[in-house]
Amino acid sequence: MQQMPGFADMIHINISLVAASAAVVYPLPTNISDRGLQLVAEHYPELEFLNLTRCVKLTDYGLQQILMKCSSLRSLNLYALSSFSNETYKKISLLSYLEFLDLCGAQNLLDDGLACIAKCKRLVSLNLTWCTSITDVGVIATAEGCTSLEFLSLFGIVRVTDKCLEALSRSCSHKITTLDVNGCIGIKRRSRDELLQLFPNLKCFKVHS
Fold this sequence. Notes:
By secondary structure, this protein is α/β, with parallel strands linked by helices.
């Protein structure tokens, strides 16, 4: 165990070295600043897992330091962070090893930003809950780019329709096991048999009431 030296807002960060070339940063203090995150990026460029849940003081600058310097990231949790710009979200495409991405509440994420993220070909789990600016265009790009998706949440996105579901079926039908379209009023109800025709390995499907 090590602690990052010299910065009060980072005193409780525990960093475990899990291998010579990999590190994990457990959930960071929610009051961490851009400067604190910059230090993480500079000291641990081999990071594979990073959880920034509710770190609401962060701005584009802080996140960009991680995206540009920690290219080995496999898991990035940005849950409940709504202040980042679409241009910053586009830089997530730099993370070619990314498998897990939580963007819940990313209200500034646009379709072209999501299309850039879709260049992360290894994505297995993608949470787009309450990414309310997204439409079919962005989800279709995701379906075509991220063909290994097993988990996808579109919860609360009212501008998507059956078109995106059809695209997901064409590209990810044998991979997706969990699909959440609760609150997606443009996606029609389907029977269990209809869903299994689209996604044979589906285990969990949540639809609006």
